[in-house]
Amino acid sequence: MKFANFAERSYDHQVGWHINPDAGENAPERKLPYVDNGTGRIDAARYYDASVAAREWDRLWTRVWLIAGRAADIPGKGDWFRFDIGKESVIVVRTGDGPGDIAAFYNVCHHRGNRLVMADFGHGDHFTCAFHSWQWNLDGSLNRITDRDTFREPLVQDNPALTPVQCDQWGGFVFINLDPAPAQTLTDFLGSLPAQLAPFHFEDMVVVKDVETWWPANWKVALDAFLESYHVHSIHSEILPFYDDYYQQWDLLENGMSRMLMEFAAVSPRLEDQDSLNDGLKMMLEDAGMDPASFEGSARDVRKAIQRHKVPAYQAQGKWDDGLVENQATDDWAYFIFPNVTLNIHPEGFLFQRFRPDPKDPEGFIYDIQVILRPVETARPPVYMGVEDGTDCSGKTRPERRHIRHGEPGLGFVLEQDSMLVPVVQQGLRSRAFKGMRFSEQEQRLRHFHAELDRYLSGEK
Ligand code: FES
Ligand SMILES: [Fe+2]
User: Fold this and answer.
1) Does residue 42 lie within any of the structural domains?
2) Which of these, 339, 333, 364, 374, lies nearest to 354 by C-alpha position?
3) How far apart are the C-alpha atoms of 443 and 90, rounded to whole Å?
4) Which tens digits make up the pLDDT trace of 357-368?
5) 10 Å Cβ neighbour count for 5?
6) Residue 157: CB partners within 8 Å, gap ≥ 6?
7) 339 CA distance to ligand 2 centroid (A)?
8) Nearest CA to 199 among 359, 319, 334?
9) Cβ atoms 91, 116 nearer than 8 A
10) Are 373 and 416 within one domain?
11) How far apart are CA 388 and CA 380, in angstroms?
């Protein structure tokens, strides 16, 4: 419940904020039960210590389900993409015409260890090593050992197939697991997530923006920053006129996952003026196809007005699926898929962010962002989706992955602000004076994530 006077607010951590206090027991936006992860302090060493990174490799990355990419990126038989995680590289390939005909293999040649593919995406009938042209079929079976007659039999008699990697799909994502016998099926691992997200129909969405970059920070420093909105008033204050950064619903889910439901088209309670139609709200109205000049009402009415306009309009266009709730017409539903993916979800699509460790440097990570949308022929996606003007959102062309350097433009201004902040935090964590993280309840998703990470690192999971 929002307080009439923000300065007099109080917070009960067992109760939390509810984005819709009237949500029914089975409503998608119902407040989920509080999970008490204690008040312990997270030690800074996990953000720079090479031994922690090595333990993460042994205990986490090689044992957990990971999002490798999108099934729609390999629509035809023989299409493949490469997914690198830590020191490993994996080829994900479409082996046939059925929806389940996707396989994954270690991207390494059995002759002398060359990588088989180097590009992000490709297509072929075989995988041919560029070094001495050994060749494998799409199903991983060996097709050719060049000049086999010159190998003595013990070296080739096993006809080495490509080494398979476990893979499965949900929501249009291809997941891989480097553990040959994963402790959990993908379904068990995802828990209630697929049911919660089913109304968005991710499987029908396509990539319209794809950027990969490297930041000088541990992957968890950045992930932590994207699991909370506590820093928004300070780092991204430009968005406060149309974004409630305080009254948010934080829900903790199974297996370290979580969500954060955030009101868009609502003025931050930190701002004094809660009534005037500010430029941010005008932008939100325009985005929704409404005329700000003729809008009658105060800033407090904008969010609901947009919902009442947008839902029937989307229904008429067949873009409002069963199971979506009115608040989703404006709000940002942020989900965390353990261990390294966040999604900011709207009915039009979502922002995908992925954090991959740099195998050579615990103080570096690879940052991937993609914008994944329900295909639209003409309509422009909402401005907060971060899609550049002129982008083809019809799904007919899949953009190339852009590789940009840290600090180069291309992420959009909010993410660029984060990209400047995160490496500076990394430096501070090295200080002898820093005695560990103190997480507020606004940061309960970070605590939940680290508690799950600890279960992996300790061997409990
Ligand atoms: S290393 Fe691949 S064929 Fe020689
Ligand atoms: Fe941020």
Assistant:
1) yes
2) 339
3) 34
4) 999 999 999 999
5) 7
6) none
7) 19
8) 319
9) yes
10) yes
11) 10
In angstroms, the CA 16 to CA 389 distance is 39
Q: Determine whether the shortest distance from the Cβ of 109 to ligand 1 is under 6 A.
A: yes
Whether 427 is covered by a domain: the verdict is yes
Q: Please tell me if the CB atom of residue 114 comes closer than 6 angstroms to any atom of ligand 1.
A: yes
Amino acid residing at 404: I
Counts for the chain of helices (H) and strands (E), in that order: 9, 18
**Domain carrying residue 359:** 12-52+193-457
| Pairing outcome for strands 79-85 and 88-94 | antiparallel
Identify the residue whose C-alpha is closest to ligand 1 atom 4: 132
Nearest 5°: the CA angle 372, 378, 379 is: 65
CATH number, domain of 22, equals: 3.90.380.10
Domain count, the chain: 2
Q: How far is the CA of 127 from the centre of ligand 1 (A)?
A: 11
| Per-residue pLDDT reduced to its tens digit, 265-310 | 999 999 999 999 999 999 999 999 999 999 999 999 999 999 999 9
What is the model's pTM? 0.97
pLDDT at 141 over 90: yes
Give the pLDDT confidence of 189-242 residue by residue, as tens digits.
999 999 999 999 999 999 999 999 999 999 999 999 999 999 999 999 999 999
Does residue 389 share a domain with residue 320?
yes
Mean pLDDT over each residue of the chain, to the nearest integer: 96
SS3 (DSSP) at 42: strand
145 lines ligand 1 (CB under 6 A): no
42/70 same-domain check: no
Amino acid in position 94: R
Ion ligand 2 — residues with CB under 5 Å? 418
